[in-house]
Amino acid sequence: MDAGGSSTRAVAVDAHGAVVGRGSAGGANPNSNGLAAAASNVAAAVAAALDGRVCAGVVLGMAGSSKLLAEPAAMERYATALAGVGAPRPRVVSDAEVAFASGAAEADGVVLIAGTGSIAMRITGHRRAAVAGGYGWLLGDEGSAFWLGREAVRAALAALLAGDATGPLVRAVLDDTGASAFGELITVVNNRPPIALAQLAPLVSAHAGDPVADDIAERAATGLAGLARQVWRGGPVVLAGSVAGPGTPVGTRLRRLLDGFDVRTADNGVLGAARLAAVAAFGERVGRAVTRA
């Protein structure tokens, strides 16, 4: 299953790799939903997908999985809830591992996620082997939506200082923030939660062709490509996240910079979780057979 903050999707896969059941429920991340509700939603989604079938294994993909794994009481709550619907203790994996599996059936490669934050992860044997980036907005997140928004504001500040705030992206930043002067823009941005800078990222994409926006997109793609290269040792590179999507300014440049690599795009997360569950329960051949979820 793919467990998010607002919704959870589960699929049941048989020993031939065919999807034989689906289920959905509310959010299953304990940080945003509370442990009791999260565990209940996991069980509800799995029960609907199983529809009375015998369950050989469960893979739970979740952002923030390391925190869940570090809290035995929370894991027991999930395991107990699943046992109540006839499912065994889940194997919990990160959203990055699920994203890689959603875009590649191979066991080894790299996944590069560029959403609100950014991280590259080398996958070996379907599991995390090494990472680059993923430090969060304060220490890194190169090329992420947060980074794009911050660079857009920095460009606007530079333009205001130079006395030429007429460029399309700069004007869009000032319109969005309601600021018109250097000090005012700093005050407005600092009065918002830092991560709110990610909300300005679409302005960079929307103003492709503006030299300022294009420079930011190029630097973002260069930073992201660098993260992927740091951990790549072979296999496909799966791109995931809204910033790295095909057709986006950053995504287009990123794919050009990674020319020569086997670049793929992540599909829906529940497909990746289904593949990992099939591998765990039935082996590699069946996992590769899971193509639709």
TrEMBL record:
Task: Quote the SUPFAM superfamilies the UniProt record gives.
Answer: Actin-like ATPase domain (SSF53067)
Keyword Kinase on entry = yes
Care to name a GO molecular-function term for this sequence?
A: kinase activity
Keywords from UniProt, A to Z, are:
Kinase, Transferase
What residue stretches are annotated with the ATPase BadF/BadG/BcrA/BcrD type domain?
2-244
The answer to whether the entry has keyword Transferase is yes
UniProt xrefs under PANTHER family: N-ACETYL-D-GLUCOSAMINE KINASE
Name of the protein described by the UniProt record: N-acetylglucosamine kinase
What organism does the UniProt record list as the source?
Actinokineospora guangxiensis
Classification lineage: Bacteria, Bacillati, Actinomycetota, Actinomycetes, Pseudonocardiales
